[in-house]
TrEMBL record:
Lineage of the species this protein comes from: Eukaryota, Sar, Alveolata, Dinophyceae, Gonyaulacales
Domain Methyltransferase FkbM: 7-68
Organism: Alexandrium catenella
Pfam families, sorted: Methyltransf_21
InterPro entries, per database record: FkbM_mtfrase (IPR006342), SAM-dependent_MTases_sf (IPR029063)
Superkingdom classification of source: Eukaryota
Record's protein name: Methyltransferase FkbM domain-containing protein
Length: 103
């Protein structure tokens, strides 16, 4: 179950010194059901490698969670990602965190 307070997250920041891959694996249900519309994440290859993952593995998880990894706004190792279906994500937030209905 996803905690009610996590159903309406517009932006999430993940910067945990290489453990981003582990954090995303632990958030599979959240990312599948109610992902933040925007994600700011720092990915340093050497830190990720120490924690047992890679930039590609993290990017694959993010892509499968609906993030547009081709449209990355980057500064050094920091990436600003948005949901591919951003309008639907924003509509979900406007509806109080409930999935937007389709017409």
């Amino acid at each position: 179950r996803v905690e009610p307070g996590l159903r309406r997250v517009l932006v999430a920041k993940i910067d945990i010194e290489g453990n981003e891959g582990r954090a995303l694996q632990g958030a599979v249900r959240l990312l599948r059901e109610v992902p933040p519309c925007y994600l700011l994440i720092e990915l340093k290859a050497r830190f990720l490698a120490k924690a047992g993952s890679s930039v590609k593995e993290v990017a694959d998880v993010l892509a499968s969670a609906g993030y547009d990894t081709a449209k990355v706004h980057a500064g050094q190792d920091t990436y600003w990602l948005e949901q591919r279906d951003l309008q639907r994500c924003l509509a979900r937030l406007a509806a109080g965190g409930k999935p937007a209905t389709t017409a």
